[in-house]
Amino acid sequence: MPIKTWELDPNFKNEILNELGGEHLTACYQCSTCTLGCPITEIIPSYNPRKIIQMSLLGMRNEVLTNPDLWICLICQTCTARCPQNVVVGDVLAVIRRIAEKEAKAGKIKIESPRPLFEEAFLHTLEKYGRLYDMGLALEYYPKREGGTVSGMMAMMKDYKDFGMRMFMHGKMGPLGGHGLTKGMLPSKIKQREVMKKIFAWVEEKEKEQ
Amino acid sequence: MSVEKLALYPGCPSEGTALEQDMSTKAVFEKLGVELVEVEDWNCCGAAEAEDPRLVYALNARNLAIAEREGLNIVTPCSICYYNLARANNALKHDEKLREEIKGIDPSLEYNGTVTPKHILDVLVNDIGLDAIRSKLEKKVEIKVAPYYGCYLGRPPETAFDDPDDPVLMDQLIELIGGENVPFSAMKTKCCGGPLMMTRGDLAFELARKILETAKDAGADCIALACPLCGMMLDSKQPDIEKALKVKFDMPVVYITQLLGLALGIDAKKLGFDKNIVSTKRILEKVV
């Protein structure tokens, strides 16, 4: 499909350049080193970070923000380490994901991938307790992903029933390891939880400023 | 550099899925005469899920500040915690305005940039040193090991402390304790798939499969690693991967501190060898 030049948004690159991590976008000279070393490209040949960067430079804002490939980046930093132009490709993709999440929250685009839900559920446990609480994460994530409590619980059981039993039998969860009766089942809470609330409020404030 | 006392940032998996890494880290450092003091009331580093760098900076400013008040450098057994602590430290150290702004959130986030965060592998090999470790070895661990480094030790360049493509620090420890490194260069620094485990399990399993398969084909008795997320993916999830992809690996996966602990003469139970999901019996039989 040819690019519709009249639909391009020349300001999109500036949106990325102005975000923390997106500063070096324009240094890209399309050599494709990022894509050649990418472990996801190895499995899915059409996955192409170089292309996402070029589309961003051209201003194909909507195509970039709704590209499902954004959400299968591993953040493994291989592209970042190898880029001869120091584009910090991994951070650029993270910036684009953050812009996409903002657009989705504003109802302007729809993200099919469940990854934003997962990240949100992860950070919620952190905001509440100061540490990751696996079970709390799963109890929020699965129902949201499946769009219902019952289907969510079933999906969670499918993924984690055997895993949970393994953790239990090896004493990593529950009483068998001698680390307390409810180990891993209840959240581990830090004392200064109010500081976590303040940090998250500050980040939210900052996002609004952008 | 000699080290006597460090602040330990254990990271969230230390309390559950990576219990054996936590146990073996503490046991090994004790045996080597390095005191570890847990960062009091530490909070999560943000892991790979905090995509906004500002969140990572603020969360880790608190952990760094606690260590700073104790006058100690931070060491962590987790690669992702290390990456987040190190990049937050770099940003805060060089940006006074950022430091001031983060201090404004809460006084407990006042950090002056005097702490150096390190990963345990870096401290063991580069600070304590192979000679000092050698002088305390009591046993030989004569096994074939696939040394697996994963992502955040050799990259990104900003925080890396080993080679991005062919890291060597773990190889050196394995040789030191009498083990043999099997050819594993192609997989050493490939991602384990962990970050996609909950959202694209199929891709995560495929990435892990390649690593497990390569180790098996190379004739390894076990995989050694230094990150709890890699441990979760390659060990805790190994039975799920086998079931989903209809393959059999039966590949023990252990933390490098567990292997080192065996050579230092520490009891296997104290190193958490009964906590690894895939049986480690084969490894323990080869300690002489």
Summarize, please:
The complex is a heterodimer of chains A (210) and B (288). Chain A is mainly alpha-helical.
Core attributes:
A: 210 residues; mainly alpha; 11 helices; 56% helix; 0% strand; B: alpha/beta; Glutathione S-transferase Yfyf (Class Pi), Chain A, domain 2; Rossmann fold; 2 domains; 4-stranded parallel β-sheet; 8 strands
Quote the beta fraction of chain A: under 5%
CATH topology of the largest domain in chain B: Rossmann fold
Low-confidence stretches of chain A: none
Unreliable runs of chain B, pLDDT <50, ≥5 residues?
none
Query: What is the strand tally of chain A?
Result: 0
Class inferred from helices and paired strands of chain A: mainly alpha
How many β-strand stretches of chain B? 8
Q: What share of the residues of chain A lie within helices?
A: 55-70%
How is the largest sheet of chain B built, in terms of strand order? Answer: 2-1-3-4
- How many distinct domains of chain A? 2
Provide a count of the helices of chain B.
11
The structure class of chain B reads alpha/beta
Bulk shape of chain B: globular
Number of domains of chain B: 2
Tell me, what's the shape of chain A?
elongated
Instruction: State which percent range the strand residues of chain B make up.
Output: 5-15%
SSE sequence of chain B, one letter per element: EHEHEHHEHEHEHEHHEHH
Give average pLDDT of chain A, whole number. 95
Query: What is the radius of gyration of chain A computed over CA atoms, rounded to a whole number of angstroms?
Result: 20 Å
For this structure, the CATH topology of the largest domain in chain A is: Fumarate Reductase Iron-sulfur Protein, Chain B, domain 2
Chain-wise SSE layout:
The complex is a heterodimer of chains A (210) and B (288).
Chain A: H1 12-17, H2 33-36, H3 39-43, H4 49-58, H5 61-65, H6 78-82, H7 89-105, H8 115-129, H9 134-146, H10 149-169, H11 193-209
Helix pairs in contact in A: 8-9, 8-11, 9-10
Chain B: E1 5-8, H1 19-31, E2 35-38, H2 53-70, E3 74-76, H3 79-93, H4 96-105, E4 118-119, H5 120-134, E5 144-147, H6 169-176, E6 180-181, H7 201-217, E7 222-225, H8 228-236, H9 238-245, E8 253-255, H10 256-263, H11 281-284
Parallel strand pairs in B: 1-2, 1-3, 3-4, 5-6, 5-7, 7-8
